[in-house]
Task: structure prediction
Amino acid sequence: MRLQEHPSPNRVPRPPGTAVDTLVLHYTGMANAEVAVARLCDPQAQVSAHYVVLEDGTVLRLVDEAETAWHAGVSAWRGQAGLNHRSIGIEIVNGGHAFGLPAFAEAQIEAVIALSRGIVQRWSLPPAGVVGHGDVAPMRRADPGERFPWERLAAAGVGVWPAIADAPPSRAPLRDLGRIGYALDDAPQPTSVTAVVLAFQRRFLPTHLTARLDRATAMRIGQLIGTGAF
Result:
């Protein structure tokens, strides 16, 4: 992993005593890396991330992990709202859905895994604390999208994947989605069941994007609960 310093002015100190317990993965959703990095370093944009991972695997550090970057926005996960102060943000250069959701480059994914493993170890993050932007802001965001290889990250020790094939389907899927971490009633903004279900499917059932709590989705929720990570 090649790490380069590229400081962004869009940062503030973390509040004293704030525990970092979440890693949020994003795609940039812009035409190219140059445009994305320029925006993340533009004081008027008021957005940033701790890291940007380029297509060739180069990692740019924009904000020190000890500081707050502005990447999550209006967000909630595991009963906590406003995740910027308690999270690390990684932006992965990819055009996203607006540009046809191109495949992530191999070197890029290898760098994301190496970078994320280091973050998980430094901050002792639990598997449930590794999320996508779409998980924590399902009404606004869909990144890093259904083509992101979450299963591969979990196999490398980053996050969790529902590997228990014989687990029973969830009998209370909405309750269990909240147990996993998705916000409904306690969201910082109105959040629809449809948006949460679609976010879950993009993350854990990426070939089945129905946005419905159907049997396949209930099965996958049950498998995920069966991992014991929640």
Helices lie at 33-40, 106-123, 133-136, 150-155, 173-180, 193-204, 215-225.
